[in-house]
Write a structure and sequence with these properties.
By secondary structure, the protein is of the alpha/beta class. It has a single domain, classed as P-loop containing nucleotide triphosphate hydrolases (Rossmann fold, 3-Layer(aba) Sandwich). The strands form three sheets. A four-stranded parallel beta sheet has the order 5-4-6-7, sandwiched between helices. The chain has a three-stranded antiparallel beta sheet with strand order 1-2-3, with no helix packed on it. Strand 8 and strand 9 form a beta hairpin. The longest helix is centred in the N-terminal third of the chain and has 24 residues. The two termini are 28 Å apart. The structure holds 3'-phosphate-adenosine-5'-diphosphate (PAP). The site of 3'-phosphate-adenosine-5'-diphosphate (PAP) has 21 residues, from helix 3, helix 7 and helix 14.
């Protein structure tokens, strides 16, 4: 496995292939543009508006476009591994753990040339919808990527292409987090990456919107529940993780993760401390202090360029306590209880088994 490189820029084999592909993209663009005309709109967090499509809220110019293109054009391979999550649940951390684990035989952790130390988490493990499929047509030859391909995505389960959902072999790691911390993390992030001219969104207003489900890829609870239900139907395909569990017992969950991805740690590796080395490499302290994460940028699309440092804020459990009133806590906990009631997902207690 390796990071994306210029060698993977796709050069169409024939003019016909290029034309067909462009026609397909054109058709998807047309569908996307037509949908945009009629969709319900609400005030945006970092863009002017959010639009609602099939029950979920998206930023119209980036997230919705990415979801459309992924849904219509992405073709899964049997060995693909996806990292899915609602925003701010720990994707950055998990993608580094997954990348370092899957590539542990290719790179020396102690070497300064490890890609995570130099190119940042997103270059090693790209966003499918928020990055690759923001280009038109995409400029990465996905077929040329080494197997297993690793892709991160925020799109809701119902938007995943059938080639992903019906494949009996590709895998999905899903991470979720206490919605109180998700909200605080999201609000900070959106306020910082806001497009020029979009006014600040006061915390209380953002909170009400979040509770109503009007947030990027929201409602949060529906996002989690849909993946959860799919995981109950195909448990072998999914690994469900909670940020809080990963924080509390990182080595236990990293070992489960490695096993799930088909690369379990050998006893010898465990004895040699490989698990601990990966955890150290991917720790908040280490990653957030790297030059590439202090000064580098992530170009998600022509309109959206985010400083890598924005993906590292505090990395703590329970920061919501510094912002919430009792009333806010009660309100959001009640929504969580009501939404997750009967699902088997239970916040605060590790509900079921090993992979929950
Ligand atoms: P994304 O949705 O934009 O991809 P994501 O990486 O899922 O963001 O979440 C960011 C959160 O993970 C931030 O949480 P905070 O705002 O509460 O601090 C970020 O600090 C945290 N985070 C990033 N890297 C790590 C890490 N290595 N360990 C623990 N938490 C981390």
């Amino acid at each position: 496995m390796a990071t994306l490189s210029s060698q993977q820029i796709h050069i169409p084999k024939t003019n016909n292939e290029k034309e067909d592909r462009e026609k397909d993209y054109e058709a998807t663009y047309q569908k996307y543009n037509e949908a945009l005309q009629t969709l319900p709109k609400e005030r945006g967090w970092m863009s002017e508006h959010l639009v609602q499509y099939q029950g979920y809220w998206f930023s119209p110019k980036s997230a919705l476009k990415g979801a459309f293109l992924v849904q219509h054009h992405f073709k899964a391979q049997p060995t693909d591994i996806f990292l899915s999550a609602y925003m701010k649940c720990g994707t950055t951390w998990l993608r580094t753990l997954m990348f370092a684990t899957m590539n542990r035989s290719s790179y020396d952790f102690s070497s300064q040339s490890h890609p995570l130390l130099n190119t940042g988490p997103h270059a090693c493990f790209p966003f499918l919808d928020a990055s690759i499929y923001q280009n038109y047509p995409i400029n990465t030859d996905l077929d040329a990527l080494p197997s297993p391909r690793l892709f991160a995505t925020h799109i809701p389960y119902t938007f995943l292409p059938q080639s992903v959902t019906t494949s009996s072999s590709c895998k999905i790691v899903y991470i979720w987090r206490d919605p109180k911390d998700v909200f605080i993390s999201l609000w900070h992030f959106m306020e910082r990456i806001k497009q020029k001219g979009v006014p600040p969104l006061p915390l209380k207003e953002a909170f009400d919107m979040f509770c109503e489900g009007v947030s990027h890829y929201g409602p949060f609870w529906d996002h989690v529940l849909e993946y959860w239900k799919a995981s109950l139907e195909s448990p072998e395909k999914f690994m469900f993780l909670r940020y809080e569990d990963l924080k509390k017992e990182p080595s236990i969950y990293l070992k489960k993760l490695a096993e799930f991805m088909g690369q379990p740690f050998s006893l010898e590796e465990e004895r040699e401390g490989v698990v601990q080395e990966i955890l150290k490499l991917c720790s908040f302290e280490n990653l957030s202090n790297l030059e590439v994460n202090k000064t580098g940028v992530l170009r998600l699309s022509d309109e959206l360029v985010v400083h890598n440092s924005e993906f590292f804020r505090k990395g703590k459990v329970g920061d919501w306590q510094n912002y919430f009133t009792d009333e806010m806590k009660e309100k959001i906990d009640l929504i969580t209880e009501q939404k997750f009631n009967g699902s088997g997902l239970n916040f605060g207690v590790n509900p079921q088994n090993s992979n929950c």
